Amino acid sequence: MKSSFKLSLLAVLTSSLMACGGSSSDSNDGQSLVDAESKAAFSLGVSDAPVDEAESVFIEIDSISLIDTAEGSENTTTIDTFTNEQDEVVQTIKVDLLSYQGTQQLKIIDESQGVELTPGEYELELNVVDAGSYVLLDNDATEHPIKVPSSRLRLGAFAVVETAVQVGDTPAYTVEFDLRKSLVQRGNANNNNGYIIKPNGVRVVSLYGGIEGTVSAGLTNLGQCTVYLYDETATEYGDLFDPEDPDFVAPADPITASIPLASTVVATDGSFAIGFIEQGSYQLALNCGTDVDDNIQYDGFAIPSSADGTTLDADVLTVEVTSQTTTTVSF
Prior knowledge:
The chain is mainly beta. The chain folds into two domains: 40-206; 210-330, Sandwich (Immunoglobulin-like). It contains three helices and 24 strands. A hairpin with a 5-residue loop joins strand 5 (82-83) and strand 6 (89-90). The longest helix is centred in the N-terminal third of the chain and has 34 residues, at 2-35. The chain is globular and about 55 Å long. The termini are far apart. Keywords: Signal. Residues 40-199 form the DUF4382 domain.
């Protein structure tokens, strides 16, 4: 009797559980789909804004870590294989950043590699091979080493979204090395101890657009011209400076001018390009002259103007940047 009772009870319980399970499955099929963790395919390229006096800037990457910054998350995705320019899979990748300036880039992680991330906020860390990272200066065959502290360059947060996708050979995300901001010489011209790359000026972007344009010969004849990009709210236009750098020396009077978001030197033919800009409204201003803009110290250049203080005829331009589009302007 006890055995029979146990079997009968088991049958009743099993039947009840199956009924509950069937009902739950029928009512929660949609919820299961919602609860299923969505994934975003990841692909990555690298680009650069040109820097003065350098012929080549090589950086060799051993691996890339993507750190999920969600509260309580300990997830880190490490990528240790790359896609080179010939679409070959390689263990490390060495890039001359000056070969990919303005709106150009080199894809180093292809979507076909199958890297998928949960949408959210991440930080990206580049693990650099010191021996393969160096600067070649104009008319100088010496390899001036690039030093990255602990061989790791950790960048600020960026958003991974499902709407950012690779299109052809154009990756969903790009690491933009603005070397005019981030590359700093250790020592001086007479005692060059190599260079460092600071996280300031290196950023990860997606859903970006670009700006291309020309500067008239009447302006380029004044000397080297630089185009500066500012937020749409800027009312005073500053040159490059970094108040967070330990070598920064604050001027006696408080700085009220806005720090440029990006900048680029105008080519000898009057052309320029600034790439990988998040969509939005911006301002462009021009400075032409013989002075070199120090990327740490505030030089107090009058912008827009020439280096001798002569006001340029070119006005500050307001530019609307849209995703996947290049906006054309002229000074």
